[in-house]
Amino acid sequence: MTGNGRMGAGMQIGVVGAGAWGTALAQMLASDGREVLLWAREPDLVDQINRERRNGLFLPSADLHPTIRATASLADMAVLPILLLVTPAQHLASVLGQIPRSGGDIVLCAKGIEAGTGRLMADVARDAAPGADLAVLSGPTFAHEVAAGLPTAVTLACAGGEAQWQRLSAAIARPAFRPYYSDDVAGAEIGGAVKNVLAIACGVVDGLRLGQNARAALISRGFAEMQRFGLAMGAQAETLSGLSGLGDLVLTCSSTSSRNFSLGKALGEGASAASVLSNRATVAEGAFTAPVLAGLARDRGISMPIVEAVVALLEGQAPAHKVVASLLSRPLRAENPLG
Ligand SMILES: NC(=O)c1ccc[n+]([C@@H]2O[C@H](COP(=O)([O-])OP(=O)(O)OC[C@H]3O[C@@H](n4cnc5c(N)ncnc54)[C@H](O)[C@@H]3O)[C@@H](O)[C@H]2O)c1
Ligand SMILES: O=P(O)(O)OC[C@H](O)CO
Questions:
Q1: Out of 185, 213, 220, 284, which could bridge 263 as a Cys pair, Cβ 3.0 to 4.6 Å?
Q2: 326 is in an annotated binding site
């Protein structure tokens, strides 16, 4: 199916969260002159965006378009028909719960699973914003590339089906930003959440200098884990092998531009997770998702040895080389990823 071009440039879109990804999405949406209202949690950042047209905290590379306006007020977002929610996964419930709004479209852009509850973002949003029409935007998307206008394709999974897709694709697509339709909300969410954990593992391989063969093996066996978990949770196989699953897994497992990959690399080089994370203002979602994902998999009898290994490393149970040795000494078995 196809989208219908863009809606009138007059309709303002709201972006909630002015980290790297929210700012990049605002920049992309404003690239055709559309007005974008961007909520930032940090008051100084609101001022900087409005006065200097830049986000020195989270996306210093971008000169922000003049039609982006920042606000510190979540109430300002309540009147907008389309909101992109781009706060980190662990903060979605509290931020969304503070927006006094009923109905409208909510496009979920965080990649993660809520610790403590095990909820995917759409489940969080259904509770925090009952009555909203939910969609998930996910795929291989480094923020700095999207902000620079480089070509990018994403999955836009719409719980409201094709009618919602027509509405949202018209508002969100740009010449260099290409959404693909899906009705598989859970599949799009699971791919994005699981790949972050696997990217930490790929970073460890890099940090330990285990080579390109090992990284390719890890991507492939990691994808098998994503498939086992995703299919058990009701995801469609096509979504997992698409942009929001395999596509994002390949991107995030291939570059130190990924915060998850670079966290893993530091772990492989001998650092502790606590020391790496305490020195960062940015989020590595995989560190929060890994334990809850492992728990969900264990509860369901789903084998995810790479995810378990990441949890062991994050918790400092053993040094990286020992965790890898233990993965490599598992019994030989059939490759069938679903077996
Ligand atoms: N950066 C990317 O390239 C990229 C791409 C796609 C998806 N994502 C996803 O987008 C989400 C946001 O990531 P990001 O890269 O924009 O963040 P970031 O690491 O650039 O910035 C951290 C963000 O967390 C916010 N924050 C910190 N404490 C908070 C709190 N208590 N309540 C609410 N917000 C709080 C900050 O205000 C800031 O917006 C994540 O789920 C990430 O996986 C990121
Ligand atoms: O920097 P990361 O690891 O959070 O990855 C960013 C995006 O999710 C890549 O698609």
A1: 284
A2: no
